[in-house]
Design brief:
Radius of gyration: 18 Å
Order of helices and strands: EHEHHEHE
Strand order of the largest sheet: 2-3-1-4
Shape: globular
Distance between the termini: 28 Å
Structural class: alpha+beta
CATH topology: Alpha-Beta Plaits
Number of helices: 4
Largest sheet: 4 strands, antiparallel
Mean pLDDT: 78
Strand content: 15-25%
């Protein structure tokens, strides 16, 4: 399993990113508002004020999105995100990276489309009444 993180600079693309993840079989993700180090320093420390000029002042924050997925899904998801957002290796587009995950508790099975807690979301193959 991998945790895929996307720091999305193009905040207007959030819904498109979420649909892309869903189309790739990702059924859950967490979205957080985030701010980069350069932007924060440019606001707080005078010597870094010139970084404010380099930063996109029309975009006061980013979204950081993370999702847990099977290893074999990672390349497909990254390719789909690159197709949607443009080349993520270009500065200012965003950052994507993965981190290996050893244990996951509470994650719905990938094929589960039911409500959380419903019997079709159990990972042990049993129904709620068993």
């Amino acid at each position: 399993m991998q945790a895929l993180f996307l720091v999305l600079n193009k905040t207007d693309q959030l819904n498109h990113v979420l649909k892309t993840l869903y189309d790739c079989g990702v059924r859950g993700a967490t979205i957080m508002n985030s701010t980069g180090m350069g932007r924060q320093l440019s606001r707080q420390i005078p010597i870094f004020a010139t970084l404010g000029y380099l930063a996109d002042e029309d975009r006061p924050y980013n979204y950081t999105i993370f999702a847990i997925m099977k290893d074999e899904k990672v390349v497909h998801v990254i390719n789909a995100l690159n197709a949607l957002l443009g080349d993520l290796s270009r500065p200012g587009t965003g950052i994507v990276f993965t981190v290996p995950v050893g244990t996951v508790v509470g994650l719905a099975p990938e094929d589960a489309l039911g409500r959380p807690g419903s019997s079709d979301n159990r990972t042990d193959g049993r129904r709620d009444n068993e």
